[in-house]
Amino acid sequence: MTEPVFVDTNVLVYWLDARDTAKQQRASQWLAELWSTATGRISFQVLQEFYVACTHRRDDLRDPIRSEIKNLLAWRPLLIDGSILEQAWKLQDRFRLSFWDSLIVAAAKAAGCRWLLTEDLQAGQKLDGVTVVNPFLTSPGQLPS
Q1: CA distance 123 to 69
Q2: Partner residues linked to 5 by β-bridges
Q3: What is the pLDDT along the chain (145 residues), one digit of tens a residue?
C-alpha cells in the first residue's frame, strides 16, 4: 500500500474496544498496516472525536487515550480550515451527508487520500475522488493499487 488512507474515528475506537473482538482485530490489522507503510492520515476532528468517544464515561482512560493521540500526531493531522469547511458544505449538499461526515470526506480529499476507512458511509461509495472502504469488510491487502 503506497497511497494515503484516511482513517475515521470509528476505526480508532474499535481498535481499543474489546467488546467486539472481530472489529478490534480488523481495526488493529488496518492500523498496523498503515503504521508500517506510513500511509495513515487523520484530522484533528478525528482525534477530538476519538478522545471524547473513549473518555466520555471513563475518566480513567484519559491518560492512555492522550498517549495514543500523541502517537497519532505522527500522521500529521489536518486542521479544519476555511477551505476544508467550504468543501465540506459542498459535499454535504451534493451527497446529502451529515455535516460531520462531510468534514471527514473533505479532510480526506485535502490530505490527498484515495481511500476513506469508515463504517459510517456506504462501502464503495465514491465521494469526489475519495472511495469509502468499510475496514470491517475489507482487509488492507484487498485495496487496489
Answers
A1: 27
A2: 40, 115
A3: 689 999 999 999 999 988 999 999 999 999 999 999 999 999 999 999 999 999 998 889 999 999 999 999 999 999 999 999 999 999 999 999 999 999 999 999 999 999 999 999 999 999 999 999 999 999 999 987 6
Cell numbers describing residue 57: 464515561
Could you tell me if 2 and 145 are in contact, meaning their C-beta atoms sit under 8 angstroms apart?
yes
* Claim: this prediction has a pTM higher than 0.85: yes
- In Å, how far are 1, 93, 106, 141 from 33, measured between CA atoms? 8, 34, 23, 9
**CATH no. of 5-137:** 3.40.50.1010
